[in-house]
Specification:
Helix content is 81%, strand content 0%. With 200 residues, it is mainly alpha-helical. It has one domain.
Length: 200
């Protein structure tokens, strides 16, 4: 009987130790997630500060930086991991877009650059066509304001291409696509449970 009591006590200790270990692992995972959240917010904040410090930004950049600032605040307050990730990506896409718009990299425009720019702009053209759809799906009250900026960036890219500024054309086309990417992430954030939509 004494032997059985000892075995039961040992089993209880093992089960209790396992439960404590699992609790510690859960706490550790939660702490890791919180650290990752804080780091992502810190990185976005730094990026936004750099973009806001740029002298004489283009009108498209001003709009995108304002939207990124609002989205960063929403990202900061979001506790749902999926929505946090989508809002973080949307904010980052807008900040990357302004970086492309304001880039002053030198131009190296030869025939290879022309061919690359033409292929890139063709892809961006089709991406820009998705802007209205994602804006509508996002449920954002100001989503429709993104669309003219997106189209404007593509038109500027096309004008730069016509002026044989092929590197600039690619950068502006990238910026237009990044804005669409931000809208796409906002549309995904609006879906509480990720579920593939059905075709009608």
């Amino acid at each position: 009987m004494l032997q059985l009591s000892r075995i039961l006590l040992l089993l209880a200790m093992v089960v209790s130790g396992t439960a404590i270990g699992e609790d510690r692992k859960r706490d550790s995972d939660a702490q890791k997630e919180e650290r990752k959240r804080r780091e992502a917010i810190r990185e976005l904040s730094k990026k936004l500060s750099r973009r806001l410090a740029m002298p004489g930004p283009a009108p498209d950049s001003v709009f995108l930086n304002q939207r990124a600032s609002v989205l960063l605040e929403r990202t900061r307050k979001t506790r749902d991991p999926y929505q946090f990730d989508r809002l973080r990506r949307a904010t980052d896409a807008l900040l990357e877009a302004t970086q492309r718009i304001e880039s002053r990299e030198g131009e190296d425009n030869d025939e290879d650059d022309r061919a690359k720019a033409a292929r890139t702009l063709q892809r961006h053209y089709f991406r820009v066509q998705q802007a209205e759809y994602f804006a509508a799906m996002s449920g954002e009250p100001d989503a429709a304001l993104y669309v003219p900026h997106c189209r404007s960036l593509y038109q500027q890219a096309r004008s730069a291409y016509d002026a044989r500024q092929f590197d600039r054309a690619r950068r502006l086309g990238d910026a237009a696509s990044l804005v669409v990417g931000a809208l796409e992430n906002l549309a995904q954030a609006a879906v509480r449970v990720p579920d593939p939509p059905r075709l009608n």
